[in-house]
Amino acid sequence: MSRLPQRIVCLTTETVEVLYALGEQDRIVGISGYTVRPPEARKEKPKVFAFTSGDIDKILAVQPDLVLTFSDLQGDIARDLIKAGVPVYAFNTRSVEDILGMVETVGRLVGAQQKAEALVAELEAQIAEARAHAAARLARTGRRPRVYFEEWDEPLISGIRWASELIEIAGGEDVFAAEARSPLAKDRRPTPEAVIAAAPEIIIGSWCGKHFRPERIAARPGWETVPAVRDGRLHEIKSAIILTPGPVAISEGLPQLRAIFDL
User: Fold this and answer.
1) Which of 1, 45, 46, 205 is most exposed by smallest CB count within 10 Å?
2) Helix (H) or strand (E) holding 133
């Protein structure tokens, strides 16, 4: 009998995505209500929690032998599950390297290490190809577009680290790259004046959980002088793609960034 976990609850979407990609979805007995990838997971798997709130009894009812959580944001539920005697693995994914490491770790946890390494190799190849494409664009144009990534609008929150790194990989320059290294949203709150002063040529909106409204950005006082607003270079990448610290950020988010920078 295998000693590896057989009944896994995933409280964020990225570990669901990875287990399906590895062909290990039969181990999943519960997911977060915010799971979006793959789409069939929402039809096949019971929703036992939201993201930071829910009933621990719903998790315990599916008798998990492992629960996968994400960061300090789920610290309270991780604590309660541990007190209830449930094994918990808490990922703290922040960077592109962390995403690749998460894939490998999930693979090891379920005995699918070779499949996980193959998936990581595919993602690394996509990253390398994107870097080569960006280098060719730079050689052709002699410049990298200045990019402001907006994760939230009220208050302003700029991009988290992996989004900032993907912008760089795709050949852009994140105007708030230093702030992106902070894991806390409160440390990624530029003032409107700071965005205006940064003069981004491209604005990418990914308002977590709601539709991006470029007309609202264009209507902000003083922002008519921002090159991205003046030239109409306001783009959306869905939060379910670029703000998910899983393979999708690389496999789909990175090509979308490339396409935007190629315009």
Assistant:
1) 1
2) helix 113-141
User: Which residues, 6+ apart, have CB-to-CB distance to 49 below 8 Å?
Assistant: 9, 11, 30, 32, 33, 55, 58, 59, 77
Length of the chain: 263
Measure the CA angle with vertex 158, ends 169 and 32; round to 5°: 90
Class of domain 8-92: alpha beta
Please give the full DSSP string across 37-96, using - where no structure is assigned.
SSHHHHHHS-EEE-SS---HHHHHHT--SEEEEETGGGHHHHHHHHHTT--EEEE---SH
At 71-106, the pLDDT tens digits run 888 999 999 999 999 999 999 999 999 999 999 999
Question: 222: closest CA among 189, 190, 192, 201?
Answer: 192
Q: Give the separation between CA 113 and CA 169, rounded to whole angstroms.
A: 26
pLDDT single digits (tens) 125-154:
999 999 999 999 999 999 999 999 999 999
pLDDT in tens, 170-181: 999 999 999 999
Rounded to whole angstroms, the Cα distance separating 110 from 126 reads 25
Distance (Å) of CA 172 to CA 2, 20, 160, 187, 238 = 47, 32, 15, 22, 18
Question: Other C-beta atoms within 10 Å of 12: how many?
Answer: 24
- Asked if pLDDT for residue 52 goes beyond 90, the answer is no
pLDDT above 70 (res 232): yes
In the chain, where the domains are located: 8-92, 118-262
- Per CATH, the number for 118-262 is 3.40.50.1980
The distance of Cα 230 from the centroid of its chain, to the nearest Å, equals 29
Question: CB neighbours (10 Å) of residue 193?
Answer: 9
